[in-house]
Design goal:
Largest sheet: 6 strands, mixed
Number of strands: 14
Shape: globular
Structural class: alpha+beta
Strand content: 25-35%
Length: 297
């Protein structure tokens, strides 16, 4: 009888230990083994809030945007054309996400943001910053190379477990070919001064088609060795700018990855409800894998 009691106690203790292990197995931000080496990233020109957009003005679209983000659950999103009240609304409704960025007009809350949103449950932010696409990149609100408006880049250094990578989110000029070309040249020179040899993700609305010189400048850089994730599956990717249904649709939004990274499942999210579009740009996303494991620096 005593032996039976000891056996029952032993089985109970083993069962409790197994439950503790099961509960703690994914603790501390750890992920299942099949997702440890990948992350989902997205670039999304949100379109600023203006009543001139009529049915597609922000108050009509905001729930469609929120539902999209809640369903896709990206690890990091680079947005463009975000006004501060739009950013505040998203922050209120996406409690698992933190936001990085400043207004392009004054380096505070004035003008459009080009923010990075990241999932605090899957990523740790190690550092972040921003600069302007101009001859004086550290001067808030500076305008460069015949652009009509300030253009800003937001960057962050992240860690996912023992892997470190950088994300740069950019929005190029919509009026000046020279500004776009000079912005591309500046970026490929400036990014290594921040990221060093770590893997880099460059995303954003570049207002540039893949036949133009600014795109070629980014792709042809021998140091970063950027790859256009939209081309990795061998198919021609869909247009990203839709103009709320205008006929001049074109691909001007990109996610580039540097050496040390690979990608799959590139998607253009062509979301609309009748005449209501998610934005005048479709968001794009891809899964990114770490080809080389690197340690925090």
């Amino acid at each position: 009888m005593r032996s039976l009691i000891i056996l029952l106690i032993t089985l109970i203790l083993l069962s409790q230990s197994a439950q503790v292990i099961a509960r703690s197995g994914n603790g501390g931000g750890k992920e299942p083994p099949d997702s440890v080496n990948q992350l989902k990233v997205e670039s999304f020109n949100l379109r600023l809030d203006t009543p001139h957009d009529g049915i597609n003005a922000w108050p009509h679209r905001q729930q469609l945007v929120l539902t999209h983000l809640q369903q896709t659950q990206p690890d990091v999103v680079g947005m463009q054309e975000v006004l501060v009240h739009q950013l505040d609304w998203l922050a209120e409704h996406l409690p698992d996400y933190a936001f990085i960025g400043v207004g392009r007009d004054d380096g505070k809350r004035g003008g459009e943001f080009v923010p990075l949103l990241y999932n605090t449950l899957t990523l740790n932010k190690l550092d972040s910053g921003y600069f302007w696409l101009s001859e004086t990149p550290n001067v808030p609100g500076s305008i460069g190379w015949l652009a009509h408006l300030p253009r800003i880049v937001t960057w962050a250094k992240f860690a996912q477990h023992n892997k470190v990578f950088f994300v740069f989110n950019a929005h190029f000029s919509h009026v000046s070919d020279l500004a776009r070309q000079k912005s591309a040249e500046f970026l490929v020179r400036y990014i290594p001064t921040i990221a060093g040899d770590n893997p880099v993700i460059l995303m954003g609305d570049l207002n540039t088609q893949d036949s133009e010189s600014a795109y070629t400048t980014i792709i042809a850089n021998p140091s970063l060795q950027f790859i256009d994730t939209g081309l990795t599956d061998g198919r021609q990717p869909a247009a990203t700018f839709n103009g709320f249904g205008q006929p001049d649709a074109k691909r001007i939004d990109y996610i580039f990855i540097s050496k040390g990274l690979s990608s799959s499942d590139y998607t253009t999210h062509q979301e609309r409800q009748g005449e209501l579009y998610i934005s005048d740009h479709y968001p794009i996303s891809t899964l990114i894998m770490f080809a080389i494991l690197n340690k925090q620096q």
